[in-house]
Amino acid sequence: MQLLGDIIIIMEFRELSEEEFERARFGCDNFLQSVEMYRRHKALGREAYLVGVRDKKTQAVVAKGVIMTHKWYLGKKLCRVPGGWVLDYEAKNWQEVLGFLTEQAKEFCAQRGGIVIEIAPNVVAQARDGENNIVRGGEDHLAVKAELVKLEYKYLGEYECTKWTYALDLKDKEAEEIFRSFREGHRRVMKKGIKSGVKIRELSNGELGILDGIIADTAKRRGFHDSGMDYYRTMKEHFGDKVWHMVAEAPRYVLAGKVEPEDEDDKKMAPIAAAMFVGSGEEVIYLCGGSRAEYKKLGAPHLIQWEMIQRAKEAGYIRHNFYGMKPVKGSGVYMFKQGFHGYVREMLGMFALPIGILGKIYVARLKEITYACIKGEEGN
Known about the structure:
The strands form 3 sheets. Strands 3, 4, 5, 6, 7, 8, 10 and 18 form an 8-stranded mixed sheet that branches. This protein has helices at residues 18-23, 35-43, 94-110, 142-150, 175-181, 184-195, 208-222, 229-239, 252-255, 264-267, 300-314, 332-338, 356-364, and strands spanning 2-4, 7-9, 11-15, 48-55, 61-71, 77-81, 86-87, 114-119, 124-127, 154-157, 164-169, 199-202, 243-251, 269-280, 283-291, 319-324, 343-347, 350-354. The chain contains 13 helices and 18 strands.
């Protein structure tokens, strides 16, 4: 029971059915906090729970979360809520809801051997522009960060989460207008790719080896984590048509430096870039990608992004999220994404709530990480 002014708000914490979880919608909904991701986790043989807070009077779910557990030592577990607690952070009583949810989730996890709850809310900390400057009067949820710290969550910055993303708004914009806004160099390389015969298409489930091979090569070259075939396959299995595996192909004669094809084999298409995207809430998210470095001048990664921007707009999504990057001057990934003329999204970051003595010892050893301290990054 929580007291809000002169009104008594009665809430209950409980496990939710998939239908209840799906029906409750909030502005910070995300693919990490979805029934699809819950099913994927369970299908992989992992422990996961759909939980939520319900207003007893209206029966409405006012907060929710997918809790995923990972085995630790001594039979204990790490409880993680990737994508963070999902609720209306603009509501008048969001502090009360968050506080009640935290208290109840802590007890819930403790009963199942949890020693910590790690969350990374899908909430923008401060509005920023394309150059990473804070936009005064824009979106600001630093009060949420302060409230979490007040509730004894330890702030960890970029620890095991995507804190900095880059996005492009699509709402009320025509495709031609969006294309014209791209950096001149981006438009030029894309036009060259199109003129050279580069084509973009969606891979079938039987062709995921193409995506896996290109990303694995890129990961090795650029030093970022390669998620692997199982990730690409299981994401498609559980998200269905909300996941796109895209490939950019070019005629073999073009790749060989020939002016025109000499035989039928020369006319065949060969893959030079690939990427995976997921539709979530109001946006399409670029999850991972790679390309053949020797064909950089054909702009294949640019054309894949442009294809998905158009698909996202046609499907009614209002934002194309290029996802993770580090807003560091000179970063190739940052510069690539900046070329699409969007803006930086600074998310709140990771927080860890200790449970019991072991939890306090575990969390005390975790150190805050900021992008200036991180070396190596995902790239194309």
